[in-house]
Amino acid sequence: MAFAFIRPPEEWATGGEPMTGPQGGKLRYMAAIRSLDIPFVSRANHNGQNVTKAEASTLIGMIKDGVRPSMEYLDSLGRLPFLFAPPPHPRYWHDRHGEPSAEQIAWIIHLSTRRGIPMDLIQGALADISHGQASLLIGRLRRNGYIRNKADRNARFVKLVRAAKEELPRPIKVEEDASEDKMADVASDSEANYGEVSAEVKVED
Question: pTM for the complete prediction?
């Protein structure tokens, strides 16, 4: 089935339910052939992790796409405080405007180069992308297949990047330097006005 017809895990109504047996079996198989240590499938107590269907699906997709997850990433799965809750959209993540993870960057590069996107275009997309935007872009890249025409696929990539950034825009930052300069100008004007008033009062005396 084409990726364009697969709903992303964050949109699954049952995405917050526990990882299924087939998903666990798939991860055990992938871990064995890729020499990966996935604690929640290799240990009897599941490493105290309650991995969900959505998390397992995302991890399977990541490994299948050639991205090797770090131990920190693997240990972070299954730590949601509420079980059986649908996974939240990236806009609700507390670190949505933070920097993208190493796994996200590697995944975007892998998916993009596999689709024939030049590295300079990929680097431009990664230059100012946030953690939440990277997640949205990965989902869009996985749902869009290879486009034969170079100009069309590059234009499509730019469109996907723009859509991800527009769906979850970064907050507008107030330039601290500009604010400090403005405050300094206000202070200077106040001092100047005070000096003029003082001089006028002195003349009248």
Answer: 0.67
The two structure tokens encoding residue 165:
């950034």
Q: What is the pLDDT of residues 80-129, one digit of tens each?
A: 766 656 667 888 888 889 999 888 999 999 999 999 999 999 999 999 99
pLDDT tens digits along 143-158: 888 888 999 999 999 9
Check if the beta carbon of residue 37 is closer than 8 Å to that of residue 75. no
Nearest CA to 129 among 159, 165, 158, 90? 165
Band of pLDDT at residue 172, cut at 50, 70 and 90? confident
DSSP state for residue 174 in the 8-state scheme: P
Q: Is 161 helix (H, G, I), strand (E, B) or coil?
A: helix
Q: In Å, how far are 141, 175, 204 from 3, measured between CA atoms? A: 9, 41, 84
DSSP three-state, residue 193? helix
CB 117 within 8 A of CB 158: no
Return the number of other C-beta atoms located less than 10 Å from residue 173's C-beta.
6
The sign of the CA dihedral 74, 112, 146, 3 is: positive
Distance CA 193, CA 153 (A): 61
By the 8 A CB rule, do 74 and 7 touch? Answer: no
Of the candidates 104, 47, 100, 101, the one whose C-alpha atom is nearest the C-alpha of residue 78 is: 47
